[in-house]
Amino acid sequence: MGLKVALACDHAGFSLKEAIKAFLSAGEAVPGAEVTDLGTFSDAPVDYPDTGVLAAEGVARGRFDRAVLVCGTGIGMCMVANKVPGVRAALCHDEFSARASRQHNDANVLTLGARVVGAGLALEVVRAWLATGFEGGRHARRLEKLRRIEERYAREAGKENPGGREDGGGGR
Ligand code: RB5
User: Fold this and answer.
1) Bridge pairing between strands 34-37 and 89-91
2) Is 19 a pocket residue for ligand 1 (Cβ < 6 Å)?
3) Does 140 share its domain with 128?
4) What total number of domains does the chain contain?
5) Which domain holds residue 123?
6) Residue bearing the CA closest to ligand 1, atom 5
7) The domain that contains 93 carries what CATH number?
8) Residue ID of nearest Cα to ligand 1 atom 4
9) Is the CB of 48 under 6 A from ligand 1?
């Protein structure tokens, strides 16, 4: 079975997301990638957290192996994705960083800024990112430290908000 890749974008990333979808669907990046497009589906304004979180949660829950998220700068998408525990999102606009984010950080989400890079470079970044594996070893120890930080904050949040409600509860 091919790599399951989710795509998501906001209005600023719409046309680059479409180009990435065509590239992946044609098997140009990795053979047999299974692509799921979570929107947005036009260049009408939308808020990047709304689409970005769908893809990030899909990766965290194991529905997708990886996700590629596109907004104007790639920054908002990187921020929202990294709020989801288990996600390691990397904003990469060059192939070296894209490869390193896989080899060293085991990044499971790539974010791109459609207003920063041209489509030609963005597609090469996507290709390099999808084709590169995690090196493990000393890098695994560092990722374990990241995981423990997430765990600590989750424990603390659980103490403050035992019901687990996002609004902190207290409403009538
Ligand atoms: C939308 O104008 C823009 O702010 C958004 O695409 C992104 O760049 C945010 O980080």
Assistant:
1) unpaired
2) no
3) no
4) 2
5) 4-135
6) 72
7) 3.40.1400.10
8) 72
9) yes
